[in-house]
């Protein structure tokens, strides 16, 4: 007989951003538990609100599946002594299986006799298995945890009730002082306590007490209500997916409503108004069909439309107070010049172990100049990037950003334009923060991209030099995100960015400009390169590049971000070629032998007079062709390496590299080292798995 089971964890209101991940976690944990316990079912339906996490499991089996298996133990020669008596290993093995040595049979496995026992495990009733969900619930993890009462147990919020109902039967277990029952709770203010007769009654009974437990249904209703209001007023309302998700997880019985604010506030930049409505008040903003922001908003109440005008008035009052503050700061900020704000940055700390914010900007200016020269920017791009680097943090000390921290960069752009800065400079100020998340938008302008790179490089180099290197999940200064940003910006712009060489150039430029911090940045360059390569490894993993290709590419000599991506593409594209195995094996042999070269191999001039067969001369010519191809890019380099493979094969057939004559041996090792260094630009091909 198939059963329906209801599990509900009733809680104090959870933060909105936790609700969806929490119900997904609970669903997965329960599914894994049932699989582990050999209990079959048809479907698991999740329910979630700010006050509850619940699952309805349908088509649940009566009991666990029975298990019949033959379990292998120690070899016969270990299980019995010379007299045929059972040894301790045999006795211990059978005891561990809940049996005795009398149950042992011998079976041959790969030519050797082993102890086996045939084991039958009868499935437990499903009610007994479901009691174990106590451990599933208590094992859940959350971004923040709390204790309550005198308990040491931690959870996202205090647990107030538990429902565990198998059809009509309560499955008994307790968490702290809360014991499972058939009683759930309706809406906190509109509903009442509900006694469930059966598990299948859950959703319908909650609806009667003003709780829409199905998050998908609740979200669809909110969206429909917003669209109805927008349509009635001919508004254009963009329903932001993130905001909709958040609002959905704040309510159990949604009722959307409209509100207004004084049109005088429309003189404030749209970004400020939108931030006030969307981010601070969780309102949906409205635009006209022409795209102009309107003095209207839509919000969602957790309740019915009873006394809705009081709710509207309250929300309007709160928004007006925030907009009044914004209007004040907007006017006051414009009374000072950018130079005034930049001067104030001399007293603002970037980090107390590193420098002030003004000193950071001076370093970034030096880095921007290096990047501008390296990337061959034109005069206009260079001037915009340099000017932006001189002022780009000024808005941090404005009143508006002090009140609305989310607008840093945005207000920098607005105020820069108001004070007559070049639009390219203003845009770079806004864009230097991008990307603000792992997959966030990237700078679209060249000056913005250069400033973003410079700012991120400075942060990583100085924090590493100050000993504040991310470890484990600890990354308080978001250096991993900044490193990912460097990689994404570089590949998006298709720029050559040799990290090690440029890092040295950045430090030299800072020292020349007398703006270098009192930190040893040079000693951290190798660590910074490895750190950025790990971000690249994560990106490769996300696009499912073969792990051995990833190891090969990142293990090579190149630190050029774009080259690493190109190398991965080349090896991936050619991995199925008929000659790929032969090429890689030949080049791998070259790399391994080059490791036996003397330390001064770079000082050895290859002497053709020491060649003892024609294959040495042919290989020498082939390597010259590879060296000529390398500056043309990795595709040309790979093609040249493929072309030289027959010469490598002939060379190894005819030549003993490790000759007795030291001069001849070193001459040959120097030749192979030259080819190995060229090959390592593509990657450490020794890491590749070829079949």
TrEMBL record:
Per the record, what are the reactions this protein catalyses?
A: tRNA(Gly) + glycine + ATP = glycyl-tRNA(Gly) + AMP + diphosphate
Keywords of this protein's UniProt record, alphabetized?
Aminoacyl-tRNA synthetase, ATP-binding, Cytoplasm, Ligase, Nucleotide-binding, Protein biosynthesis
Ranges in a coiled coil? none
InterPro entries named in the record: Gly-tRNA-synth_bsu (IPR015944), Gly-tRNA-synth_heterodimer (IPR006194)
UniProt entry tagged with the keyword Cytoplasm:
yes
Its domain of life reads Bacteria
Output the Pfam families linked to this UniProt entry: tRNA_synt_2f
Query: Which terms does the UniProt entry file under GO BP?
Result: glycyl-tRNA aminoacylation
Gene Ontology CC entries for this record: cytosol
Subcellular localization:
Cytoplasm
What SUPFAM superfamilies does this protein's entry cite? HD-domain/PDEase-like (SSF109604)
**GO molecular-function term, one example from the UniProt record:** ATP binding
Q: What is its EC number?
A: 6.1.1.14
PANTHER family xrefs? GLYCINE--TRNA LIGASE, CHLOROPLASTIC_MITOCHONDRIAL 2, GLYCYL-TRNA SYNTHETASE
On assembly, the entry states:
Tetramer of two alpha and two beta subunits.
Query: NCBIfam families per the record?
Result: glyS (TIGR00211)
Q: What HAMAP family does the annotation carry? A: Gly_tRNA_synth_beta (MF_00255)
Q: Which family does it belong to?
A: Belongs to the class-II aminoacyl-tRNA synthetase family.
Q: What is this protein called?
A: Glycine--tRNA ligase beta subunit
> Which gene holds the coding sequence for this protein?
glyS
